[in-house]
Amino acid sequence: MNLHFELILEIIPYILQGLFITLEFTLLSAILGFVWGVVLALFKISHNKILNGFAVFYTSIFRGLPLILSLTLVYFATPQLFHYDITALEAGVITFTLNSAAYISETIRAGIAAVDRGQREAAIALGIPYRKMMWDIILPQAFKNILPALVNESIALLKDSALVSTIGATDLLRRANIVAAEKYLYFEPLLLVGFIYYILIISLTWVARILERRMRRSD
Amino acid sequence: MIEVHNLWKSFSHLHVLKDVSLSIAQGEVCAIIGPSGSGKSTLLRCLNLLEQPDQGKILIRNQEITSPKMDIQKIRQNIGMVFQHFHLFPHMTVLENMIYAPIHVKNIPKKQAILKAKELLERVNLTNKADSYPARLSGGQRQRVAIARSLAMEPEIMLFDEPTSALDPEMVKEVLEVIRNLAHTGITMVIVTHEMAFAKEVADRICFLDEGQLTENLSPDEFFSKPRTKRARQFLEKML
Question: What is the CATH number of domain B2-78+157-239?
Fold first, then answer.
């Protein structure tokens, strides 16, 4: 075993810059994916056959394709189809948003279904309109129940964001690979970014736990 | 105040209500009683269209609510409903539960809504619970909050769906007390209940449902002393 971390000391700042890119992809996709996921979940529980059918079909597509295939499709096919020179950031965020929304929508749908029917009836009996009932009464209760599942999804998203290295975005993983190729050192830079991913996910879990505790206030 | 004309309702192949007609005057307290599965709750739930009847008409203050053109949300604001299992919003405090609908549905200023809510909490003897979450309350306290929450909308009609059936025996009294006081305020009430003594005492009229049919519609005195149908007699023998 001869590890030479001292050889990559000088390029640590370079790798750390990738952290911001990874976080940018993840954060944007998580937020947009969540919003789109809520919309899809509402489609799935609606009585409108068209919306319902669309959401179910949509989910089957993104569940049925490997993420890396969707990503390459969006990145390489968009310029051909729309003559728009899509950036890696755009392609990544669009793909991850669409993909994670498909998964999240199922989780949210289950969460909504698990909220006691009586909550809905009480809201209806009070004359509360559908939209307010959903946002203020049903969804807050649903989220409390599905928070652990949402955290899992965010973790998956953070790790899947490493796929953008395949379309040329210089995220954590890509930078580690560049350094590796330059210095003929693989173990050190890869171990370093592995450690960073790990710390990120541990922090995410920790934040989620605090959030969960705060939401349990009403129990 | 409430008129029901030839109401029919079925769930798949089960006929729950068969040609029920009934009218309730303003300020009247009507108790709906009958065996389990006789359609009492369904009838009550039709009155604010939580269940959509298959046939028949319901008029509230001479407005036909079963007509497709009717803005049912507007009508529901005027009809309070209390459920067997309370259905308080668990993520809101008692006070938040009470002011949500007045603020968001009736657009009442928050300050005014809070004032009204506190006044109602005093009426149901729960002033000190305003900032508690429902999970911290006993069953009887939850049901009293649920009643106060409905009253916060200042409805003209109150529907009670077995309000004490899910309560421990020692808590039934405090809830009935609240309903009893309400009966004296001139609000129109329809109560589905298994508490015979309470129905006798509080109601102006007893409606007896049997297998989806309204077979008796009498004053409490008449109903409890000489019910007309055999089924009602049998039912009373079991209950009293």
Answer: 3.40.50.300
